[in-house]
Amino acid sequence: GDHNLRDLAADMLVQARYQLIKLRIFQNTVTQDDVLSVAAAIQLTKDTLGENHPKQAHYKGFLAAVSGDLTGAVKWHASAPADTGYSTQFFRAAANVIAVGDMKALAGKPQRSLPESCWHIRHAGHSECTFISTDQGYFTTYFEGFLESFSLLNPGALLHVHAVGFEPTLARLVELEDRYSVHINITHDPQALKRLNPDLRKGYCAGARYMYLPDYLSRYSRVIIHDVDGVLETSMKDVWQPADSAPRDHAIMISSLIPDDNRRGHFAFWQNIGAGAFAIAANSENLKFATALSGYLQSRFAICQRTGGRFFFTDQVGLLLATLAFNDVCTIVRMPQIFSQSSDTRGQQRGQAKKDAQEKRLEKLRKPET
């Protein structure tokens, strides 16, 4: 009772201070005073929770990230005990941070605890693809809008759909291919989503694209990953060969501010890389990144199933851990802005807001400015 309330109040205090400076972290105008305001909130939690409360390791990791020290952030988060008491959803994500050395070691130990997927390679002639992972609900609501934007920017290109817990009918695929003049390959992932709690279900649908990434890199030389609930704004060609910079044929591209020079501070560890837009070329170094990320997500999925821990957002934690672990051997650069979706996060209205935003942006794509 009282302990849980005290634990929650501490988390909420630290989060509230963070919310006040989050925009400045984004704009790279965060000051020493901003960091001190977070440190002061953490100091207050020591008065109520005690200096040695297990939460303090996560708070120290959080402060390190806000101060611009991601290496320190990992050390503190990874050193926290498994049970840190009652936590907000925000801080529950911290439990999934592991040491960078442990992440690196996963590259040499490919995991295989996933359901055996069934591949339907209807179009074998493509060496690269755009790749989405979706359950039946998202497929029904958003897929056709996403596909239309894909087709307008990439006529004749290949979209590979990782279908979790369902299989689109052949008739539907043929109809969509004919209407939009693109090719669609399908992987049917038989994960039994109904057996998972809502957090694991959402987390698996988001994480599957990264869990199976090594399989995709064995088939395609270049892969671009997207969320499906929005609209594409950049062609595959422009992702790999931007007009204003050198080709990125060998790169990994992350949706993050981290590759930018002179960052004054970073977001909470699990908020620095958006998992909804990512690109990777198939080469031996990048395969280490993908193998470690896949193994990490598989192991966290099993742990969260067993412990009731929070799995959603683990893909973003894993992407940052892999970036820190392989930054010295892989070329990791910032992903161009290629995707837009609604930022409305209000419960029940969120799905409709995303759908409306998708339709508005499609209208713009259909009628290019003359």
Protein architecture, described:
By secondary structure, the protein is α/β, with parallel strands linked by helices. It is built from 14 helices and ten strands. The chain has an eight-stranded mixed beta sheet with strand order 1-4-3-2-5-8-7-9, sandwiched between helices. Helix 8 links the parallel strand 3 and strand 4. Helix 9 runs antiparallel to helix 12 and helix 12 runs antiparallel to helix 13. The protein is globular.
Please render the helix and strand layout as text.
Layout: H1 2-27, H2 32-49, H3 55-66, H4 70-79, H5 89-92, H6 100-105, E1 118-120, E2 128-134, H7 136-153, E3 158-164, H8 170-180, E4 183-189, H9 198-211, H10 213-219, E5 222-226, E6 231-232, H11 236-240, E7 252-256, E8 273-281, H12 284-307, H13 314-326, E9 332-334, E10 339-340, H14 350-366
Parallel strand pairs: 2-3, 2-5, 3-4, 7-9
Antiparallel strand pairs: 1-4, 5-8, 6-10, 7-8
Helix pairs in contact: 1-2, 2-3, 3-4, 7-14, 9-12, 12-13
What labels describe this entry?
370 residues; alpha/beta; eight-stranded mixed sheet; two-stranded antiparallel sheet; 50% helix; 14% strand
> Tell me about the biggest sheet?
8 strands, mixed
Strand order of the largest sheet: 1-4-3-2-5-8-7-9
Number of helices: 14
What is the molecular shape? globular
Helix percentage range: 40-55%
Low-confidence stretches: none
Tell me the structural class.
Answer: alpha/beta
Our Rg estimate from Cα atoms comes to 21 Å
First-residue to last-residue Cα separation: 63 Å
How much strand?
5-15%
The number of distinct β-strands equals: 10
Mean pLDDT: 91
Order of helices and strands: HHHHHHEEHEHEHHEEHEEHHEEH
